[in-house]
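Long-time lurker, first post. I've been practising inverse folding by hand and with some scripts of my own, and I keep getting stuck on stretches where the structure tokens seem ambiguous. Below is the full token string for one chain I'm working on. Before anyone asks, I'm not after the true native sequence, just a reasonable design that respects the backbone. If someone could post their per-position residues I'd love to compare against what I wrote down in my notebook.
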């Protein structure tokens, strides 16, 4: 690990990439976080623990250490799962520290031109422009449905692609047909007495891969007394950019999201994807130094609620049909650690007749998906996925219920690899089923409410 000869300037605020990392000074080195850290659990090395990474971040910010390859490796191996935050008695804001560190790494070590181009394509072009994302989804759908993907895999041609493209191909989820990617109606009226007017975030990847979950969310909210509006022109909230060290674009996306949702004049902004919800609740911090947006960002962040968090505030409105299923629940990191929501999804599931929930060992441990972590750190992601799948298989559950698209795809892929007949579902799919599901004729070709079969997944 390289060190610099520079003395540490005592009074200077600690920053990386211009972002405060003063939170490192809250760490009292007690080590209580170590047992909760997936990477420390797997590797047993101090520098792959929260305490070790905090030491690295502090040393970098104080100029006592250079950004060596090993420092980058230890920091990049962090999942940003924030399990350490949950158990930390000193309140170290670890998520903010690691995001600042990742932004610093991206600025100082952006990598080869192909990597930079790839990041720009994803973070700059696709996530920032919903129409281009939809176009790319249509291209991916054609690639999969035409059999080209199967052919490229069978002939080994896929292995000839440069950089991480083969890994992207392996993880490309089955893209639904365009007719199944329709968003919920602009407005869905409350059934029965009105409880609130809510605005729904449809998300970037979510709106392409799991549009059915968004439609189900609107239906379930309506059954629970909400007028549901889907603001036009909404884009990506910037969570993936922030987690990937792309701070500038994350800020721009946060401003645009606030502009769009303020116009909807809703009481609550509902989010059904964990990373987006946790990130949007942090807009107040993200835009604290932005004169034009600071106050608006604070107000907006206070109006954001996870779907389960919102619904669990009142008993579910009936009638609820039986859902005869044995399931287990996986806590997405950015729900349980990022938003401290743990009992609410279980509370909702417990109200569904004939649904049996079996607790999952290490339910709040990361499955290895973690944004694009399974692409950038495939070895660790696979280790954590195997750990998750082995716990799922011991439950004997027929389904895993969770609340994040990345977790759904990752855990389903792991279960498929074990040829386990276990389906991974979003919480809202289960709730929607209890309410009778999609009305007939919702789609032109109404087959979008189910998960693709294993064959369709191409894995
Ligand atoms: S639990 Fe908190 S204070 Fe203790 S070592 Fe971990 S980060 Fe530091
Ligand atoms: S965020 Fe997760 S992986 Fe990173 S140090 Fe904390 S517990 Fe470990």
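-- Answer (accepted) --
I ran through it position by position. Result:
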């Amino acid at each position: 690990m390289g060190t610099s000869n520079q003395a540490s300037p005592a009074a200077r605020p600690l920053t990386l990439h211009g972002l405060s990392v003063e939170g490192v000074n809250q760490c009292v080195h007690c080590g209580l976080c170590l047992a909760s850290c997936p990477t420390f659990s797997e590797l047993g090395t101090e520098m792959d623990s929260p305490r070790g990474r905090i030491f690295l971040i502090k040393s970098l910010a104080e100029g006592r250490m250079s950004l060596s390859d090993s420092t980058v490796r230890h920091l990049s191996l962090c999942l940003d799962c924030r399990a350490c935050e949950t158990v930390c008695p000193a309140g170290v804001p670890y998520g903010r520290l690691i995001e600042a560190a990742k932004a610093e790494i991206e600025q100082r070590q952006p990598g080869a031109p192909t990597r930079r181009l790839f990041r720009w394509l994803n973070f700059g072009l696709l996530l920032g422009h919903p129409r281009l994302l939809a176009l790319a989804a249509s291209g991916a759908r054609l690639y999969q449905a035409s059999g080209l993907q199967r052919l490229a895999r069978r002939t080994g041609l896929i292995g000839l692609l440069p950089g991480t493209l083969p890994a992207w191909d392996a993880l490309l989820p089955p893209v639904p047909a365009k007719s199944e990617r329709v968003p919920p109606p602009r407005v869905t009226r409350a059934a029965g007495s009105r409880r609130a007017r809510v605005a729904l975030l449809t998300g970037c990847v979510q709106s392409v891969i799991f549009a059915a979950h968004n439609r189900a969310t609107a239906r379930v909210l309506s059954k629970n007394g909400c007028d549901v509006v889907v603001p036009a022109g909404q884009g990506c909230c910037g969570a993936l950019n922030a987690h990937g060290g792309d701070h500038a674009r994350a800020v721009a996306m946060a401003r645009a999201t606030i502009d769009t949702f303020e116009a909807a004049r809703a009481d609550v902004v509902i989010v059904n994807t964990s990373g987006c919800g946790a990130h949007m609740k942090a807009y107040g911090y993200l835009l604290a130094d932005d004169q034009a947006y600071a106050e608006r960002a604070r107000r907006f962040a206070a109006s954001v609620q996870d779907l389960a968090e919102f619904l669990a505030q009142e008993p579910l409105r009936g009638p609820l049909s039986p859902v005869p299923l044995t399931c287990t629940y996986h806590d997405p990191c950015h729900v349980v650690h990022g938003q401290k929501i743990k009992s609410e999804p279980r509370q909702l599931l417990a109200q569904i007749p004939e649904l049996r929930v079996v607790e999952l060992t290490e339910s709040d441990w990361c499955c290895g998906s973690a944004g694009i972590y399974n692409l950038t750190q495939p070895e660790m992601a696979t280790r954590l996925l195997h750990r998750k799948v082995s716990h799922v298989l011991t439950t004997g559950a027929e389904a895993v219920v969770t609340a994040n698209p990345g977790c759904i795809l990752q855990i389903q892929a792991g279960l498929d690899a074990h040829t386990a007949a276990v389906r991974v579902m979003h919480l809202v799919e289960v709730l929607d089923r209890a309410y009778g599901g999609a009305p007939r004729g919702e789609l032109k070709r109404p087959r979008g409410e189910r998960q693709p079969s294993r064959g369709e997944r191409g894995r």
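A couple of notes from the structure itself: The pocket of iron/sulfur cluster (ligand 1) is lined by residues 27-33, 50-51, 54, 84, 88, 90, 92 (CB under 6 Å). Residues 1-8, 444-459 have pLDDT under 50 and may be disordered. Happy to go over any region you disagree with.
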